[in-house]
Design a protein that fits this description.
ten-stranded mixed beta sheet, 15 strands
């Protein structure tokens, strides 16, 4: 079982608007509402690929209740610890080809609620081979929250993948996660390194390993990704230059890498899977959705070269 | 007691964003959530002016639950008939001085739910002197829904104010409401009349009375309003040229007019109150909020002239 941890779950609201009338009232004829937060999207993709996922996180208030209901409808097992605060919403405004996201910061989580989460997490680790820890930390949690969870997973014999940025990523590195998966902007911000060329990104991936990660994947949007572990460093190119839903693409990449970890397959096979999964997800407007037919087509066309 | 009917209640979400980064992720550091829909705003203003209001409408799903909780916190009595559909949200995006609204259409209301509402409404009419019927109709309700409610109010001895547009307003006129309060854009769209000058608007107000309304108030934004009933036609000018939250202003105008009806005061006194209330509400970013000190200051400065 792959356990996905989403400490800052969200109710993702999508508004489709033909053309926004700025400063005035816009009637939204078509909208969607879905439980979100990166880890929930990862769990959906894991399930689409035929593996079993379990969702863990926090939920509170009326928005938390809506998230619980929506996750229940998806059929994925979930353990969302109740909190006093109100879970956050995100609003995605889709006009033609452009999507603009508005993300609330999320509720304050108390020390007691964080302790209760760690207890739930320890129980879930008993049946779990891989843990994916994704997204931002809600206010109130310590910056080393992911580091704590990575260490506890290792003690329980589970492998870990961390997909976050900033101080949360920095602290997580010190706990030696099996894979970290920042994007090129996040690694540039954290390391202070220029990452314009593939060689720079490869150096940044090695820097992440020096800082503690056993494996590092840096996604580069339409330029593909760089992956590096003990066995080598690879430059992966997508089948063609694609643009689209980048949130969904990053979560599909994490899901494919987690499946590779669970199956115990050595790189670069899972890296190629991840590129194809990311490319297939990019084409869906809804994060967590992957078209399996597109995935199979892209998988044959992915190019990998040693860096 | 003033009964405010909001058939399409909403959860109003406000996002404050310094400057929107289009096509990317915007973190919303400050947001507000409040029960809304025009009638709920009217009830808040009525209460602020020291009168008693009761809210009636529909609520469904997790969003409906959030609306119920929020209305309960306000302390205003409410009777929201439970529906199977999910209540709507609105998102107001405030960047600097510009506010852009995104309004979901609202849930489908079934014939049985509409019948249950009419039963609740009839009971509430027993203690009620004035009914304010505001806003759009949710999908599923007949276009003459407001006409039905206006007739039933008159049978119960209550006065009525209707604030809506399009077919819902057209049908309501035939039921002879005591006051209708469209804005200049709404009356232009409905009547097909040009309403650029004050004289045109005065003619449109008389047209509304010919069509069935006993009194008509047409709001003109920063240009003030025109009011017309059996006793005369007045042109009202705001104390100064103001711009701001027009939704809130319209609802404050309706509240002041409803209070005038309840107190049995002849026009143009309540018209002058309504101009001052609208101007005071314009300055608050939150619909339903009126600064009473600003109201009193503006009230002394309002100018009224016979048209």
């Amino acid at each position: 079982m792959i356990l996905t941890v989403t400490l800052n779950v969200a109710l993702d609201i999508t508004y489709h608007v033909e053309r926004v009338d700025w400063g005035h009232v816009n009637r939204v004829a078509r909208h969607g509402t879905r439980a979100g937060g990166k880890g929930i999207n990862v769990a959906r993709v894991v399930t689409t690929f035929g593996h079993t996922a379990t969702i863990a996180g926090f939920a509170g208030g009326a928005t938390g209740e809506a998230i619980r209901e929506e996750v229940s409808r998806s059929g994925i097992a979930h353990h969302l610890v109740a909190i006093a605060g109100e879970s956050r919403r995100t609003v995605a405004l889709v006009e033609g080809g452009r999507t603009t996201l508005f993300n609330e910061l999320g509720p304050e989580v108390s020390p007691d609620e964080w302790a209760e989460f760690r207890e739930t997490y320890s129980k879930l680790l008993r049946d779990c081979g891989v843990v994916v820890l994704s997204g931002s930390l809600p206010p109130g949690l310590p910056a080393d929250a992911y580091a704590v969870l990575v260490r506890r997973a290792r003690e329980a014999g589970a492998l870990t993948l961390v997909d976050t940025e900033g101080p949360a990523l920095e602290h997580a590195l010190a706990a030696h996660p099996d894979v970290v998966k920042p994007n090129v902007h996040e690694i540039q911000a954290l390391s202070g390194r220029e990452c314009a060329e593939a060689n720079d990104v490869a150096a940044a991936a090695r820097w992440l390993r020096d800082a503690g990660a056993r494996g590092a994947v840096i996604t580069r949007g339409a330029d593909g990704m760089v992956a590096s572990n003990d066995e080598g460093t690879w430059l992966g190119l997508p089948p063609e230059r694609l643009t689209g839903n980048e949130t969904g693409a990053g979560d599909a990449v994490a899901a494919a890498l987690a499946i590779g970890l669970e199956d115990g397959r050595p790189w670069p096979g899972p890296v190629a899977d991840a590129i194809a999964a990311g490319a297939a997800a990019l084409m869906s407007p809804v994060a967590g959705d992957v078209d399996l037919e597109a995935y199979r087509r892209f998988r044959r066309l992915v190019r990998l070269q040693e860096a």
